[in-house]
Amino acid sequence: MNSVRKTKSRYFSGCFEYEFSKEWLEEKYIRQELSVNEIGEIVGCSGGTVWRNLKKYNISRRKRTDGKSPITRFWKGIKSPREPHECWEWIKTKNKRGYGLLSVNRKYVMAHRFSWELFNHEIPEGLYILHRCDNPSCVNPSHLFLGTKLDNSLDALHKGRIPRGEDKWCSKLSENEVIEIIKRHNNNESRKDIAKDYDVCPWTIRDIVTGRTWKHIQRGK
Ligand SMILES: [Zn+2]
């Protein structure tokens, strides 16, 4: 790791000295608002060592936030202790699907997306943040990765979390249309005719009427 250099102490045998790069230290201390002890934990040194490095670069003590900045609230939303390789469980507000929510400027943002941005950079438009650990409430940046809409769908498919009906990104039909299709099929119209009207293939109609897709819609005559 270039950001931290560990060398044997010249003065105390068996001890180590840690030298941090300024950029890395600023990133952790200023931008990510980690405390000196937390930074020390990442590296495996004491908070005092981190503090000495801060002084060396003339990085002044971070202004005390009032505890209301989104980053402070982000850290408070995670179950402690935070182990580097374990899931970081979100303990504050979650949505229906179990994703953590964090209020930023009076708007809810997804906590895992916030986490990814905090440790990386802004998420490019249209891209998704996916979980390696398949735990929606996890916000550990090392469990998150950037993906496209397709990656997201494949990921969901893989993990058996396919959204149903209209929520499906690939869904061409609306819920009302599906209800209409079922009605027409119950009136003995051919699948082929119905398919033509909705510009889908007959198999799509078959899947709908047999309940393979759109399971949540009531069937029966
Ligand atoms: Zn995780």
CATH class of the largest domain: Alpha Beta
Query: How does CATH name the architecture of the largest domain?
Result: Alpha-Beta Complex
Helical segment count: 9
Question: What structural class results from the helix and strand content?
Answer: alpha+beta
Which ligands does the model contain, each kind named once?
A: zinc ion
Provide the β-strand percentage band.
5-15%
- Could you tell me the CATH topology label of the largest domain: Homing Intron 3 (I-Ppo) Encoded Endonuclease, Chain A
Describe the structure.
It is a single chain. By secondary structure, the protein is of the alpha+beta class. It folds into three domains: 4-56, Arc Repressor Mutant, subunit A, CATH 1.10.10; 70-162, Alpha-Beta Complex (Homing Intron 3 (I-Ppo) Encoded Endonuclease, Chain A), CATH 3.90.75; 166-209, no CATH class. It is 37% helix and 12% strand. A two-stranded antiparallel ribbon has the order 1-2. α2 (36-43) crosses α3 (47-56) and α8 packs across α9. The protein is elongated and about 90 Å long. The termini are far apart. Zinc ion binds next to loops. Zinc ion is lined by residues 87, 133, 135, 138, 140, 143.
